[in-house]
Design goal:
Layout lengths: L2 H4 L8 H11 L15 H10 L5 H14 L3 H15 L6 H19 L7 H5 L6 H10 L10 H9 L8 H11 L5 H14 L32
Length: 229
């Protein structure tokens, strides 16, 4: 037997099951919104940059004060790296994030008139902005059918079989190929929220997953005593 034949292929959700799976997990939230708090495209961009390896809850706590004092790129540059840093110390990697936020704000002013660009290349050229951050902004602000693969989507892509992949980009490409086109834009947040609250990292709560019948993960977890149906 060849080495290729010996390699265990990841289980794949049936193509016919993808739309029903997404419909099921989206039933209670057909028009999902990001859980990051923001008022403008610029504020969303900053919040997403700050969310790396940090929860949305933690980011919202620091941006509530930060955006009150520096709601625009001009105000953020005026606040400076030390000023931004002193206001976001409670989140991880705050030193690097403070530098990136001030630098990207300055670049927005210099190259884009203070506006957030709607092109991937321009977004990814900003300090601290990678593919995932660009995908969030393009999806949330510009209505593009992008797939920002965070830890939750990466886990679900592999665990459910909807789009298995060894890297975030592989999962992203798989989702873009397999998810029905009319479901792509909201699917980004459906999957994130499902991973955050139901299909959790350590113990997926299969017993209350609306899409469990379509998921390839086995064995399904059972409900704790007193929580079963």
């Amino acid at each position: 037997m060849s080495e290729a034949a010996k390699t265990k292929r990841p289980k794949l959700m049936k193509a016919a099951h993808i739309a029903p799976f997404l419909t099921a997990i989206a039933a209670g939230n057909p028009d999902p919104k990001t859980e990051l708090d923001y008022q403008t495209p610029y504020q969303l961009l900053v919040a997403v940059v700050m969310s790396a390896q940090t929860t949305d809850v933690a980011v919202n706590k620091v941006t509530k004060t930060l955006f009150a004092e520096a709601p625009t790129p001009q105000a953020m540059v005026a606040l400076g790296v030390q000023g931004v840093g002193s206001r976001i110390k409670s989140i991880g990697l705050w030193q690097a994030k403070a530098k990136n936020v001030v630098a990207l704000s300055a670049q927005l002013l210099e190259l884009h008139g203070g506006e957030v660009p709607g092109a991937r290349e321009a977004l990814e050229a900003l300090p601290g902005v990678g593919r995932k951050t660009a995908n969030v902004v393009l999806n949330e602000i510009f209505g593009q059918a992008t797939m920002a693969v965070d830890t939750h989507i990466f886990r679900l892509g592999n665990r459910t079989g909807i789009a298995p992949g060894a890297t975030p980009r592989a999962v992203e490409d798989g989702l873009l190929k397999r998810v029905p086109k009319d479901m792509l834009k909201p699917a980004h947040l459906w999957l994130i929220l499902h991973g955050r609250y139901v299909c959790k990292a350590r113990t997926p709560e299969c017993w209350r997953c609306a899409g469990a019948a379509f998921c390839v993960f086995k064995p399904k977890t059972r409900a704790p005593l007193g929580k079963g149906t």
